[in-house]
Amino acid sequence: MAHYGEHTLPDLPYAYDALEPYIDEQTMRLHHDKHHQGYVNGLNKAERDLAEARESGDFSNIRNIQRRLAFHGSGHINHKLFWLNMCSPDDYSDPIGDLATQIEKDFGSLDNLKAQFGAAAKAVEGSGWGSLVWQPEGGYLTTVAYENHQKQFVNGQIPILLLDVWEHAYYLKYQNNRGKYVDNFWNIVNWDNVAGNFDKAKAYEFPVSL
Questions:
Q1: Which reaction(s) are listed as its catalytic activity (predicted)?
Q2: How many whole angstroms separate alpha carbon 59 and alpha carbon 52?
Q3: Res 153: pLDDT
Q4: Is 168 known to sit in a ligand binding site?
Q5: How far apart are CA 73 and CA 44, in angstroms?
Q6: Of 83, 99, 130, 210, which residue is the least packed, with the fewest Cβ within 10 Å?
Q7: Domains of the chain (ranges plus CATH)?
């Protein structure tokens, strides 16, 4: 975990054009280098502002600081997970092992999971995320749609697969056709990564850290 106010942009685990033809290189460069970097910068600024408020004892702006911490912090950690959730279509393989068994148990089939997840992601009003989450209380997988970046930890849910449906994630290639972007996402899901996240979630561990 980074020191307070010293978060950095992680490198992508693949080349900018690795997700072609489903996500184009230009989108990846802008999304990673500009948008994600913006969340990192915003998080660092908010943490420094909080440190200054604590040092001075002046908390008159605490509501704004906390809002920025939540927004930029969630944006940063969501993107860290999102990048790892994807792989080149040449490296794609269906889920196996414990994850595949759990998907079968909770959704009936991988196709049913895709349908439920896709419907949730397509239905996000404005900006947000589609998410496959592990619910520790009850021990099951389910899908959730989040608006903006926050509200990721509702009822202790741990996300193991995220899809960014903010317009900056797809508009250059898909324009207003979010549905096609969501459908094509399944060609580049890194199920090996999701399986590792699933193992961590079952141990009450979040897949990535700030």
A1: 2 superoxide + 2 H(+) = H2O2 + O2
A2: 9
A3: 59
A4: yes
A5: 9
A6: 210
A7: 25-87 (1.10.287.990), 90-202 (3.55.40.20)
118 vs 138: CA distance, rounded Å:
23
> Is 150 a residue whose pLDDT tops 90?
no
* 91 annotated as belonging to a binding site for a ligand: no
pTM flag (> 0.85):
yes
Q: At residue 83, what is the residue type?
A: W
Which residue spans within 93-200 are E strands per DSSP? 128-135, 140-147, 158-164
What are residue 144's phi and psi, to 5 degrees?
A: -140, 145
Q: What is the mean pLDDT of residues 121-143?
A: 95
72 is in an annotated binding site: no
Report how far residue 19's alpha carbon sits from residue 86's, in angstroms, rounded to the nearest whole number.
8
User: Is 32 labeled as ligand-binding?
Assistant: no
Closest-CA residue to 107 (of 95, 90, 123, 122)? 95
- Can you give the C-alpha Rg of the chain in angstroms? 18
